[in-house]
Amino acid sequence: MATDVIVPALGESITEASVGQWLKQPGDAVAADEAIVALETDKVAVEVPSPVAGVMGEQMFKPGDTVTVGALIARIVEGGVPAAAVPVPAAAAPVAAAAVPLPVAAAPAPAAESLAYDAISPAVRGLLDTYNLDPASIGGTGKDGRLTKGDVLAAIEAGTARLKSNPPPAPPAGGRGAESPAPTERREERVKMTRLRQTIARRLKEAQNSAAMLTTFNDVDMSAVIEARAKYKDMFEKKHGIRLGFMSFFAKAVVLALKDVPSVGAAIEGDEIIYKDYADLGVAVSSPGGLVVPILRNAQAKSFAQIEKDIADFGDRARKGTLKIDELQGGNFTISNGGVFGSLLSTPILNPPQSGVLGLHRVEDRPVVKNGQIVIRPMMYLALSYDHRLIDGREAVTFLVRVKEAIEDPARLLIDL
Hints:
This protein has 417 residues and is α+β, with helices and mostly antiparallel strands. Helices cover 28% and strands 24% of the residues. It has helices spanning 109-118, 122-131, 149-158, 195-210, 223-240, 246-260, 304-320, 393-408, 411-415, and strands at 2-6, 16-22, 29-30, 35-40, 45-49, 54-59, 66-68, 72-77, 213-221, 267-269, 272-274, 281-283, 285-287, 290-292, 295-296, 333-337, 356-360, 364-370, 373-387. The strands form five sheets. Strands 9, 12, 15, 16, 17, 18 and 19 form a seven-stranded mixed β-sheet that branches. It starts with a strand and ends with a helix.
């Protein structure tokens, strides 16, 4: 008996997705609640589990196809026998074959290699093919040890990925047959945008079209925060099991600034302004598919340790593609840390319907004037992009100054100043 597998509800207002990768192939054994396919939605990847135990049957769609909620996507054969467990009939192995030496090419290893390669998602396969890399030389951090795009990029950067032993054949050029391509020959590759990348592009353009965006800048002396981290990092990690980073200081500083300038955390809806007495902070993190912004809910009620744990968890699950839809929805202010990639200065774009986003940048020693003396200090540029329809320049500058004051004097975070 075959059991239908349908596309489940994917989250609020999400009605369709793309087939990203089949995790089980026809004939594979499947346990109840085991993931059989990964779907790419506008925000995250969603794994669809099997409702019953059995054997993977018919697959209704190919990777890259669009599926809608409620559509039949596959069938599971209950009580079926996995393909690997089916005995080979005696007739398939004639006695005379024992006397005939088999060529090396008939060994089953290449076929197994090909099957493993086919199980890799199209996006990761494209990256492997581009650089002619051996997937076996790269450790996978995805579910069940699967390779992710981030794994491949990290291996390229670290120099640990090996080239395939057989380089891809060069395409014939100008009737020269199998000759090697000329050094000046150029290539182009056309790759369809992922659903996540399409959504990022659409939302960023919507932000530019709908909001009157403006960016104001300031710089902040990081000496006090760096000193506090150096003094307490070992005790903090020993007690809480997580490292003390910059982000918890900035999250706390933003919470403090939002209390003083609530319009920065407000939103426009029609001809009304919605003010919020809580801080649901979006924290921009990088994933193999692009930038995602999970929400640190009720940041005003969280400790430094809980903020650090939540952000570390978001980053880990973003790389693995296991963030949930509801963790990416809502939020009334965003913090984006481009400094981890070496950015000196930027103008971050709003995440609608939010009215403000704070951009953090790299820390570097610069000469500054303190008490009439030129001294060297670890400085960071801050950038606040805001919707000028709702937030005036005075309010934006005041907000940024509040953040600066809290970072330069972290005691303010403890006594609410």
